[in-house]
Each structure stands twice: as C-alpha cells, then as structure tokens.
Design a protein that fits this description.
The chain is α/β, with parallel strands linked by helices. It contains 15 helices and 16 strands. Bound molecules: fe (ii) ion. The site of fe (ii) ion (FE2) has 6 residues, from loops.
Length: 428
C-alpha cells in the first residue's frame, strides 16, 4: 500500500461492532476499508478515532470574482445592488494573469480546508471570454489535486445581454462543462421562461448538465424553478439539473409550494442553497419581520430532493467574508434552516459532501474500495462535532497523496472534552 489511515471513524457506513476502520490506499484509489489492515504502507496516518470523510464539495461558487474584494473599491453598503455595480466596474479591468493568480490562491485555501471539488460559475457576458480562458487554465493546473467544474453563466441574462447566448455556446465549445442561466434577471417572466427553455434544449442537445441561478429574489411570484422542473421533465434531463439559490421559495405561498416540491422531485431537479449569501442579501429591504431568504431546505430534503449548500462567494464584490471552509457554510445552513435535530444536523454535513458530489456527478466519490483516494481527516468524532467546531483539517489526501496537514488544535480539543487527544500524532 502507498498510504494507510488507521483508526478512522467514518461519517456513514461502519462495520458492525467496530468503532473504527483502517483505510488502505494504492495507486490513487482506496484499495481496502477494513477493521484491521494487516498490510504495511510506505506512509501511515493514525487518525486515533477522528472522523475521516470524503472531501468537501462546493456545489456553487464564483471563482472569477473571488479574492477581488476592494477592487476597484469596497462595497460600502454590503448590498446585492452595489455588488452588481461593483462587478460591472471591475470587469473591464480584469486581466487573465490576475484572475488566474487569485483563483489559484483560492484553490490553495480550499485544499487546506479539505475542499477538493468545486463547481464554479464563470461569467460569459463579456465577449472576450477572458474569465473563461483564465478558469479553463486554472482547471488544467489544479487537475492533479482538485476537481474544478465550470458553468457557463450569463450573469446579465442570456436574452437580455446582447450576444450572451453565442458567448455561452463558445464557452461550452472551449471546454466549460455545465450550462448556466439566470431567468429571474431577464426583462420579463415570459423572457425568463423562454431562457430556461432555450438553455435546457441546448444542454439536452449537447448532453450537458444544467445549473441555473434561479429565483434569487424575495418575490414570491418568481417561479422559474417550476419552468426549470417542467423543461427538465420534458427533455429527459432527470438527475442532471440543479436550481441554485431558489430564495423566492422562502416567500412563496405554501399551497403553491405543496405542488412545486413534488414537481422538483419528479423531475430529479436538485437544489443548491447558499446560506452565507442568502442570509446576508435576501430580505434586505424588509423592515420587521425580516425574511431570511434561504430556500426550504428541510422540506426539500424530506421530499427526496437532493440539496447541497454552496459557498457562492469569498471576498468579492458581494461578500467580504469567507475562507473556503465548507464547515462554516454547513454551520450557517444548519442555523438558518433550524436543522438542529440529530438527523437534520448530519444532513447538513451531507449537504457539503455527498449531496454536492452527486450534483456535480463525481462518480468515484466516497470512502469505499474503488473510490478515488480523496479524504479529509477532521479533528472531530462525528459530522455534528465537525460542524460545531468547524473542526481542524488534520490531514487532506488527494489522489492518494497527503496534500495538506496541520496539528490538532488544543483549544478545540479541550472544548470537545477530549484532553486525551491532545497527544494526537498525525504521522508515525
Ligand atoms: Fe451565485
């Protein structure tokens, strides 16, 4: 074996009667998951009863904007509208080199936090497609250790912005993976519905996945998710389509939602909430009571809809916080959705791991023989404790190689009531 992680506690599957397992890795793949591996390895990690999970997956991000906070000026109001205006000011000043540098820096942050797969939207409304070229280059460079999936995103509306559909098609031809959209930003509801039809037909023709910014609004009558589900069903795209944000669902009439959620389930449309952003940008013009704006996460999950949480933004025109930590995202999602029950809390961990992996279509994701050897060792005993502590990433393994490691955090361990673990030794 190349690497063995011993005494690992898993998030889900566990052999009955065994408190932990050994994970054997060979040739970049998980070769064995057994209570006690007799084999030796060139390198060993003693997890000592810590949680070992498949890596975090971010289902919704904007890597073309990340780490640009303050360029060309800061968003003083912190609102969505000033953020959009700022992005408009920044776009003409973007250079490929600066964009690549910032994206690669973010990927370093991501790796250190055990985030090894990211779906990033990339704005295609600028005919130069400079950001597309830059992120395709980043995708190529990080491929040895991080899965970067790109969505062709017409930020200013595929119908509203002149040339945007042609730009989107060019981006796909250049190697962008997923078809994006933003129906609520088109001029009318009818244009929004038409954009969904056009984009879904294009995706069906090309055999691609779809992920649209959909109904990122407090308007309860913004119902493009209904059209997205209907087009998904009509074109047979089940399991390949996601609606991102879906914040209008927070404000919708309950009777209407009782029809909508089963329609989403029937179509196999997934939902991606972005708790950090939704909680700060939605309901912004309300007085009190103030709507919180996140989509109906527990209700969607209960109905069998796949739900993931995305980070959306880190230090960009819309959001000046964040660090690539999907446990912070899960922590916020859990609080906003009031998912403090045991099963609900664990479901929030799934929303930044296995559910997000399923939306991205990562085929060899998991902790089982045959899966890609992508793993994170967390300074926690279980997924709920990991969220509570935003647990330290003690070791991160990508393609069978240890790519990041950090010592146990004594303060966090003391808080967890595990003084015996202070002597945690990562490597023998
Ligand atoms: Fe977004």
């Amino acid at each position: 074996m190349d690497l063995i992680i011993r005494r690992a506690v898993l998030a889900h599957t566990h052999p009955a009667g065994h408190p932990s397992v050994d994970i054997g890795i060979e040739g970049g793949r998980i070769a064995a998951v057994e209570p006690h591996l007799a084999a030796a390895a060139r390198e060993e990690i003693d997890a000592a009863g810590a949680l070992v999970s498949a890596p975090f997956v971010d289902a919704h991000f904007h890597m073309d904007a990340t780490l640009s906070y303050g360029l060309p000026r800061v968003n003083t109001s912190g609102t969505l509208l000033e953020g959009i205006a700022l992005w408009g000011e920044l776009k003409p000043q973007l250079t490929q080199e600066a964009l690549i540098e910032r994206a690669l820096q973010y990927c370093d942050w991501a790796v250190a936090r055990g985030l090894l797969a990211i779906r990033s939207h990339v704005d295609v409304c600028d005919g130069r497609l400079l950001a597309v070229e830059a992120l395709l280059e980043v995708k190529r460079r990080v491929a040895p250790y991080l899965d970067l999936q790109l969505v062709a995103f017409p930020q200013d509306g595929v119908l509203r912005s002149p040339g945007a559909f042609d730009n989107l098609k060019r981006a796909i031809a250049m190697g962008v993976d997923v078809v994006g959209g933003i129906p609520h930003f088109e001029r009318t509801m009818a244009d929004g519905a038409e954009s969904v039809r056009l984009l879904c037909e294009f995706a069906a023709e090309k055999g691609l996945r779809v992920d649209m910014h959909c109904d990122e609004s407090d308007d309860p009558l913004s119902r493009h998710i209904e059209t997205l589900a209907a087009q998904t069903h009509r074109l047979g795209l089940h399991g390949r389509v996601a609606g991102s944000h879906l914040t209008s669902m927070h404000s919708m009439d309950n009777y209407y939602v009782s029809k909508l959620i089963p329609l989403m389930r029937e179509s196999g449309v997934a939902a991606i909430a972005n708790p950090l952003i939704n909680i700060t940008l939605q309901g912004r013009s309300d007085t009190y009571p103030k709507r919180r704006g996140m989509t109906r996460v527990p209700e969607l999950m209960a109905a069998g809809v796949t739900v993931a949480f995305g980070h959306d933004c880190v230090m960009d025109p819309w959001y000046s916080f964040g660090s690539g930590d999907m446990l912070e995202v899960a922590h916020m999602g859990l609080h906003v959705a009031q998912m403090t029950g045991t099963d609900a809390s664990r479901a929030c961990f799934d929303a930044v791991t296995v559910n997000a992996a399923s939306i991205l279509g990562l085929e060899d994701y998991g902790v089982a023989p045959g899966c890609a050897a992508n793993l994170v060792v967390l300074d926690a005993r279980d997924p709920i404790e990991a969220i509570r502590l935003r647990a330290a990433r003690l070791a991160v393994v990508s393609r069978g190689r240890v790519v990041s490691r950090q010592p146990a955090q004594r303060a966090a361990l003391a808080l967890a009531g595990r003084p015996e673990s202070v002597d945690f030794r990562l490597h023998r």
